[in-house]
Amino acid sequence: MSYLNRFLLALPYPLMASVKFPTNLNSLDCGGTISLNPETLALKAGCPKTHMISVCDREADIYDLFVAPRPDGVDWLIRASWNRKVDYPDQYLWEAMASASELGCIELNVPARSNCAQRIAQLAIKCAPVTLRRPCNHPNPNLPNIEVFAIWALESHPPEGTHPIEWMLLSSVPTHTQEQALERLTWYARRWTIETWHRILKSGCQIEHRQLGSLDRFVRSTALFTVIAWRILYATLLGRSNPEISCEVLLQPIEWQALYCRAHNTKHPPSDPPTLNQAILWIAKLGGYLTRKHDLPPGPTILWRGFMALHEATKMFQIMHQCD
Description:
Helix content: 25-40%
Strand content: 15-25%
Shape: elongated
Distance between the termini: 53 Å
CATH topology of the largest domain: Transposase Inhibitor Protein From Tn5, Chain A, domain 1
Number of helices: 9
Number of strands: 6
Strand order of the largest sheet: 1-2-6-5-4-3
CATH superfamily of the largest domain: Transposase Inhibitor Protein From Tn5, Chain A, domain 1
CATH architecture of the largest domain: Alpha-Beta Complex
Number of domains: 2
Largest sheet: 6 strands, mixed
């Protein structure tokens, strides 16, 4: 499976002006439906053996997208927003899935958010093929009904005071078994990591607030900060999954030497690099991490501040050693 190529959408008719998609996206079909952007088709043409899955949030719950033509090997997975009518005895999506058989349960690692600690959630899983009916208020009466595959994951026993996790996913990828349903849920869960990267890019790198005077400068700046945001996210995730490996997988020798000297107020770094876990802890302290017993592991915001301080410390370390 390839990663998360996306459909570039166009608004199919004026009534959809409130949908949260940019108005400058192209590929509007004169028949009133959404079609794929040429860039998507070109990407598929360049990777003919790659199965491309577009993973979208609830803003993409658009019937025109469901029925849009697409080449072989290009599919989508979309979180449902609307309780659509279906060709099923219960007539609506949520009611139809409520009567489907439960396939099993999955444990999901829910990352920490504001006022909510990280936790493990138990989700019951159901999946079934459903046929969505054309919206009755759609201006194109010739749109067909379409069969999709619904995957419903619902947290049955959330902690007190916590909203249960619920994902109603629709996909063009055939989904019949528990294993297939778990794979679709794993695809969607990757959005959390991607959203964290976007938060670093926007909140840490402040990419939206930079006044660079021209589009060309903005594009080059964004390319640079994209890599910086990736590095911070990489440090966050790698430090949690492989804490005992050498920090040189993340830092250049001069960086960890400067970090050690800054953390220990010394001019003489050791000959062997510290572990990644120790290096990340020192970087986090530069960013304001207090290392109290009840503190969660340092997150991307703290590490962003720490890397900024480390950058300055590394430059000073280099200057001082040139003087020596």
